[in-house]
Amino acid sequence: MAANSLSATSLTRPEFKQLNPSKPTQDVLKTQWVGTISTTKLSLHSSNLRPFFAKRPPINATISFSLPTAKPERVAATEKIPIWSSKAIKAYAMGELEARKIKSPTTGTEAILMGILIEGTNFASKFLRGNGITLQKVRDEIFKMRGKPDMYFFSPEHPPLTEAAQTTLDWAIDEKLKSGENGEITTSHLLLGLWKQEESPGHQILVALGFNDDKAKELRSFISEPTFEGDS
Q1: Could you tell me if 169 and 72 are in contact, meaning their C-beta atoms sit under 8 angstroms apart?
Q2: Number of C-alpha atoms within 13 angstroms, CB side, residue 8?
Q3: Most Cβ neighbours (<10 Å): which of 149, 189, 195, 230?
Q4: DSSP SS3 for 76
Q5: Are 122 and 139 in contact (CB under 8 A)?
Q6: How far is CA 41 from the centre of its chain?
Q7: How far is CA 54 from CA 21, 139, 184, in A?
Q8: Nearest to 185, CA basis, from 60, 107, 78, 61
Q9: H or E stretch covering 11
């Protein structure tokens, strides 16, 4: 049994020599099991390490300040192209995400309404909450309207806009152009555009929660004031 055991002295330590940082050296490792192995030491010179730390390619990012429009020629024909506020763009993006969460194949006016409320810091969301319209109430109305989503259905990464939702965006742009005022297109324009789509789910949800033409006029009067500070 002792004859088959491995000897602790079977591995001969290689003789260590002083390394030249700019020149590779060679050592020999001898064992009784695998014979002689030549091992080449890597040079420690910094230039030899450069391939291991290759520079990463630069990352290019594009930030969009506009939302989809069905009439791009209308905006291109104007001298001053109106831009959307950052909060309106965020509200739209959050609405698109909510459309995916409720497993909708499209981004509709109800999703845009949720997006406005989820962003939360814009003027339109504050106006809605001030009139008792909250995100949870909107979600409850959507589930009443749509029923439970199919658990086996998955929405596309970017659910396309419904006709009513696209018209909502275009109405907001048109309204800003008609006013002739400077400044951004805000979530308030987005909400008023949604209210104009009377057959849309978003409009029906607003009606069910107590929103009406008087409140729409009140919101419009706010954004028409010279002191109106947009989506602050």
Answers
A1: no
A2: 0
A3: 189
A4: helix
A5: no
A6: 49
A7: 22, 50, 44
A8: 78
A9: strand 11-12
- Name the strand (E) or helix (H) holding 31: strand 26-31
Report CA Rg, the chain: 33
Q: Is 230 exposed, middle or buried (0-12, 13-18, 19+ CB in 10 A)?
A: middle
Helices (H), the chain: 72-76, 86-101, 109-119, 123-130, 135-146, 163-179, 187-196, 201-208, 213-224
d(CA 165, CA 190): 10
Distance separating alpha carbons of residues 63 and 155, to the nearest angstrom: 24
Tokens 């008792």 appear where? 132
Distance CA 212, CA 214 (A): 5
Q: Looking at residue 102, what DSSP letter applies? A: T
What is the rounded distance in angstroms from the CA atom of residue 171 to the CA atom of residue 192?
9
pLDDT for 50-85, tens place per residue? 554 455 544 433 334 567 665 666 555 555 678 899
For 27, the enclosing helix (H) or strand (E) is strand 26-31
pTM beyond 0.70: no
User: CA–CA separation, 154 vs 62, rounded Å?
Assistant: 28
Question: Cα(207)–Cα(201) distance, rounded to whole angstroms?
Answer: 10
